[in-house]
Amino acid sequence: MFAVTPLEPASVFLSFKASPENFAELTERAGIIPAPYLARAQWVALQTKDALPAEELARFLRESYDMVFAKLPRKARETALAAKSAARKQRARKPAKKKRGRSR
Asked: In the chain, which residue ranges form alpha helices assigned H by DSSP?
């Protein structure tokens, strides 16, 4: 788990893991707080959707994913990479042609 968002209205819009340096920097910004219950593990929480620009948020989420992925056991990383590769191959296939039905 590298990010969490509530499905119902809440005081937090999105939470994600941050590096110790980014955690210190982000928690000094308006609209960003240490994540409830997860701050000791360097997680931050965005209080609003506009707390970070989209490009910056995408970069922080990618870093969060990479940090969590790196800590997974080797077998779990290999399984995840195999699944990702299979999904790419499936997307690359051309979709089958639709059969034409008889018109009435």
From this structure: 20-26, 54-71, 74-92
Nearest in space to 45 (alpha carbons), one of 31, 24, 61: 31
pTM for the predicted model, two decimal places? 0.76
pLDDT in tens, 11-61: 889 999 999 999 999 999 999 999 999 999 999 999 999 999 999 999 999
Phi then psi for residue 102, to 5 deg, are -70, 140
SS3 category, 16: strand
Alpha carbon distance 45, 33 (integer Å) = 5
